[in-house]
Each structure stands twice: as C-alpha cells, then as structure tokens.
Amino acid sequence: MGADVAVVFLRAGCAVSVIETRQQAHAGIMAGIGANLACLDKADSGTRLTIAQRLEEVDWAHIDLVVECVPENLDIKRELFRRLDDLVSDSAILASNSSSFPISAIAGGCATAARMLGLHFFMPAHIVPLVEVVQSSSASDDAAAALAAFMRRCGCVPIRVRKDIPGFVANRMQHALAREAFSLIQDGIASPEDVDAAVRFGFGFRYLAAGPVMQKEHAGLDVHVSAAATIYPSLSNIAAPPAVLADKKKEGKLGFKSGQGFYSWDATSIEAEKQRYNRLLRAGMALLAEELPSIDP
C-alpha cells in the first residue's frame, strides 16, 4: 500500500521519500513503483523518488506531508507517530492510512495531534480514486480542508469524514454489505459465486454510474421506502462474523495468502486474477475520467 501511495504523489510531480526498514526490499519497491508509473505514462516521475532505511535519514525540514502505511497494529502506529513528533517540521501534516483504528487513538499523547488526520486509501491506491480524509476531535478544520484540497490536486476524489468512527465511511458500507453477503452464504440462500455475481453484474454495476443515494433518486425514493419497509426487518444484524467466514480464518483458508478461501488459488491463477482485476479497474477509471479531478503538478 505504501508503494502505491507513493505513486499517487509522484504522478502529481511531488518529491517522495519512502521509508522501508528492510534494505533488501528497496530494489523491488523501486521497480514496482516504476512499473506502475509507466502504466500511467508518468515514468519520468520516478526520478523524484528516494528510499531510506531509517527515519533519521530523511530531510524532515522539507517534508510537508507524512503518510503512515505500517502494519495495522495500534502499538506500532503510536510508537511511529511519537518518534515523528521530534522529527517533523512545525507545519507538516501527519496522516495515517489505518483502515480501522480511530485516528484519535493513534494520535493520543502526540504533540502533533492537532495536525494528525486519517488519509485512508483503497487498494490499489494508485488506481482507486477515493481517499478518505478523517478528522478526529483534536484535528483542526484547516488541516483537514488543506489535506482534502491537496489530494484533489493529486487527481484523487477526497471525502471528508467529520467524525472519527470505526471504519470511517466506505469500510462501514462495505462491511454492512459483507455481513449480509456472508449471512446469505451461511444460510444456504446463495453460493459465493452467485453472491459475487449479484454485486458485480447487478447493483454494483450501476454503482459505477451512481452511488446508493443518487441511484435511488433515479428509481424514486418512494419505491425505496416501500421496499425498505419490507426488506430491512429481515436483514442480518449479527454482531460477529458468521461461521462460514470465521471458520475460514480458523482453518487457515485465507484466499490468495494460503491458496484457498471460498475459491482455490495457485501462483498462476493468482497472477491471472490480479491482472484481470487491475485491467477492469483501469477501464473503470478511464470511464470516469471526465468526472475525476485533473492532476495539478
């Protein structure tokens, strides 16, 4: 994720420093970023990239924005931002790409809390346009507005999340859908393949053109209210993942990571699926090109 975020900034002409403690990973990161920039016809932007192994190797006086993409572990994140307190300039904005932890929990005790925000990208970050700018009660409105404006200049579609709630906006909606999807599988109502097809070739297909609110404007809010009155009471409201999902984790069936999930995978099929997935995402981005912010180097 960190490498893909670097591509977002590099394609906008920014100088970017990536910090990776594993020296042996540097060459692969550089190559991967270069390949993604080439796909965006921005190969020359890679010359503005540097990779460091330690925080102390970075010229922090010239860093205006820090984006944390370390593992999803609260203690690791807190420790990193405490160290950054002593390194960053007085004007730098600090951001976390955490997908679940409240920003206030990460920023607690930090001297820079007033300019710490969530900046939540979606994989792959250099293709998916959305980015969430999450504001905790400690962060200033000015910092949030400035970060959102900057991300728009980078060609992203930023949304403001004005309350620091778990999962923010997009992940909350995704998990609401996933809860119902896995419950339908658990109850034997539909197979994993049919659930995926219902989303991809049904209402999900329409979401490329209109989100859930706009789509109901097309259909008629009266129709939605009537349907909701019938459907809402029967929707899953379970507070824990259903067994059909939770058991996969217990059994080590994790998808790509293990070669088995709801689907079976090997090295060949994983690579083919990644290429198919990215190809379709790029096609979707091309379809939406007229509605996306232009990159302003």
What is the CATH C-level name of the largest domain? Alpha Beta
CATH architecture of the largest domain: 3-Layer(aba) Sandwich
Number of strands: 7
Helix content class: 40-55%
Give the domain tally: 2
Shape, per Cα inertia axes: globular
Q: What is the N-to-C succession of helices and strands? A: HEHEEHEHEEHEHHHHHH
CATH level-4 homologous superfamily of the largest domain = NAD(P)-binding Rossmann-like Domain
Mind summarizing the main beta sheet?
5 strands, mixed
CATH fold node name of the largest domain: Rossmann fold
- Estimated share of beta-strand residues: 5-15%
Low-confidence runs of at least 5 consecutive residues: none
> Strand order across the biggest sheet?
3-4-5-6-7
Structural class comes to alpha/beta
Description of the structure:
- There is one protein chain.
- The protein has about 300 residues and is α/β, with parallel strands linked by helices.
- It contains eleven helices and seven strands.
- The chain has a five-stranded mixed sheet, with helices on both faces. It has a two-stranded parallel ribbon with strand order 1-2.
- Helix 1 packs across helix 2.
- The mean pLDDT is about 95.
Write the layout of secondary structure elements.
Elements: H1 2-10, E1 16-19, H2 26-39, E2 49-52, E3 65-68, H3 74-85, E4 93-96, H4 103-107, E5 116-121, E6 130-134, H5 141-153, E7 157-161, H6 170-186, H7 192-207, H8 212-219, H9 221-231, H10 243-250, H11 267-287
Parallel strand pairs: 1-2, 3-4, 4-5, 6-7
Antiparallel strand pairs: 5-6
